[in-house]
Amino acid sequence: MPPGSCEAQGSGMSTTTRRRVAALGLAALLLGACGGGGDGGDEPAAAPSTEAPTTEAPTTEAPTTTEAPTTTTEPAPETARYTFGDSFDSDTGWKTGCNDVGCAGIEDSYFYEDIYAGEKEIDQHTEWEGRTFYDVTIEAGIVDYGAGNPEGGVVCHADPESDTYYDFTVGADGQGSLYRFEDGEGEALAGPFTVPGFVPESTIVQAHCAYDDDGSLRLGMGVNDETVADVTDDDPLPPGEVGLITYGDTDALSTVHYEVMTVEGSELLE
């Protein structure tokens, strides 16, 4: 910023510009005098008097000061901490039943997704619908994979209606991955990679989705408390819903069984 500038930049601050008025000087007076004399005894002629002309200084009105524009700052959004945990002892609140990609339900204290070949499904609790979560950590315990090579895991920043989300999944073959989906188009952010110590009957998939100070989104994935991926998305999806996600085998009807799910994070309120 150049010296003498009165601009101040910052959130909620106004900008003021000062104007300087130039000072005008007066012209100097011009003086003249005449004198004469002789020996003829004549009275000396009176010297004509010349009055110096006066010049009024022109007046310049100071320009009207421009008022500094005022800027309004949007109020900070209201937020609240959010926690959720379920071991699937009942189906209260879960969206269950069959549709064109498969069937979901709760049985013997686990949540199952029977899914057709080549399909995918995001399963949700009714209290997540339409809510906006961010800086969120999600865990889901998988206890069984069905036929073929289905994948199971969790999603964050999800908009199921537009097929937009981040997913963190592990397949029956022990291969993990972290994907970004936007309007149905997928992009691998990490993987596929081999999950160390993979046990199909005891797999806890963990996801952490949190903003950095620069507005980017940090995405961490763990399996059984061991970090398997840690990436940053510089152009992140907007905050959104959470859920379980299941991908079917490419050729056969398959199933993934979940035994527990937890969510902890922040929620944007209306």
Care to describe what's here?
Strands 1, 2, 3, 4, 6, 11, 12, 13 and 15 form a 9-stranded antiparallel sheet that branches. A 6-stranded antiparallel sheet has the order 5-14-7-8-9-10, with no helix packed on it. It is mainly beta and 270 residues long. Helices cover 0% and strands 45% of the residues. The protein is globular. Strand 8 and strand 9 form a beta hairpin. It has a single domain (79-268), classed as Exo-inulinase, domain 1 (Jelly Rolls, Sandwich), CATH 2.60.120. The protein contains no helices and 15 strands.
Looking at this protein, list some descriptive labels.
270 residues, mainly beta, Jelly Rolls, nine-stranded antiparallel sheet, six-stranded antiparallel sheet, globular, disordered N terminus
Describe the secondary-structure layout.
Blueprint lengths: L78 E8 L10 E2 L3 E6 L2 E6 L4 E4 L8 E14 L5 E9 L4 E8 L3 E8 L2 E10 L8 E9 L5 E7 L2 E8 L7 E7 L6 E15 L2
Antiparallel strand pairs: 1-15, 2-3, 3-4, 4-15, 5-14, 6-11, 6-15, 7-8, 7-14, 8-9, 9-10, 11-12, 12-13
Given as residue ranges, the uncertain stretches (5+ residues, pLDDT < 50) are 1-50
Described by strand count, sense and barrel closure, the largest sheet is: 9 strands, antiparallel
Overall pLDDT confidence: 80
Beta percentage is: 35-45%
Whole-number total of structural domains:
1
Name of the CATH architecture: Sandwich
CATH class value? Mainly Beta
Assign a percent range to the helix content. under 10%
Total strands: the figure is 15
Give the C-alpha Rg: 40 Å
**What is the straight-line distance between the termini?**
40 Å
Total count of helical runs of at least 4 residues: 0
Shape: globular
Structural class, from helix and strand content?
A: mainly beta
CATH fold group: Jelly Rolls
Helix-strand string: EEEEEEEEEEEEEEE
Per CATH, the superfamily is: Exo-inulinase, domain 1
